[in-house]
Design goal:
By secondary structure, the chain is an alpha/beta fold. It has 9 helices and 5 strands. It is globular, with a radius of gyration of 19 Å.
Length: about 200
């Protein structure tokens, strides 16, 4: 006997695609990936960007260490292998959001070019906008209320990016921001100028 579901719902077994989600939301999914040293201002700009997109009626999702390291990645440490796996999982989650038409914002140190290249490969290079927060390390250390840099320089924290572990600056970022020179509102404005044409492309 023929399955009655096939008669009632001839495509019931087919998932809706990205275009369907984007049409529903009236926006295009996009990944904005902030990279930079600890204390560079990544999270500050990302949070302000999220609020501005929300104000404009654009559905977005912010991913940062607080909501990833305590959840799906709470079994990972800070070795190079664990950091690579951390970024891989973040990219896989971000791809799901982007494919649902959601503007997704990531704020992670992601110190190695290989890590960020892997993330772009997973998410898709057309959907991946790399923003390098290039604030000098001297300013990052000055802002460091937790004293992490000082502890790292005393050898109390191993593999600390910028002190005892490398940070590889992006070679061709979509945008570079130095938050020691740019006020927060200007930083957000520059990101918006970069991403809004892509988000609103199909509207």
């Amino acid at each position: 006997m023929e399955n009655s579901n096939n008669n009632i719902y001839p495509v019931f077994d087919k998932m809706l695609g990205r275009a369907d989600k984007e049409a529903l939301l009236g926006q295009r999914g996009l990944m904005i990936w902030f990279t930079g040293l600890s204390g560079s201002g990544k999270s500050t700009v990302a949070i302000a960007l999220e609020r501005e997109l929300q104000r404009r009626g654009i559905l977005c999702r912010l991913l940062d260490g607080d909501n990833i390291r305590t959840g799906i990645n709470n079994n990972l440490g800070f070795s190079e292998a664990d950091r690579m796996e951390n970024i891989r999982r973040i990219a896989e989650v971000a791809k799901l959001f982007v494919d649902t038409g959601i503007v997704t914002i990531a704020a992670f140190i992601s110190p190695l070019r290989q890590m960020r290249r892997m993330a772009a490969d997973i998410i898709g290079h057309d959907d991946f906008m790399e923003v390098y927060v290039s604030t000098p390390i001297e300013e990052c250390e000055r802002r460091d209320v937790k004293g992490l840099y000082a502890r790292a320089r005393r050898g109390e924290i191993k593999d600390f990016t910028g002190v005892s572990a490398p940070f590889e600056a992006p070679e061709t970022p979509a945008l570079t921001l130095d938050t020691s020179r740019l006020p927060l509102q200007q930083s957000v404005k520059e990101v918006l100028q970069l991403i809004l044409p892509k988000i609103n492309k199909e509207k």
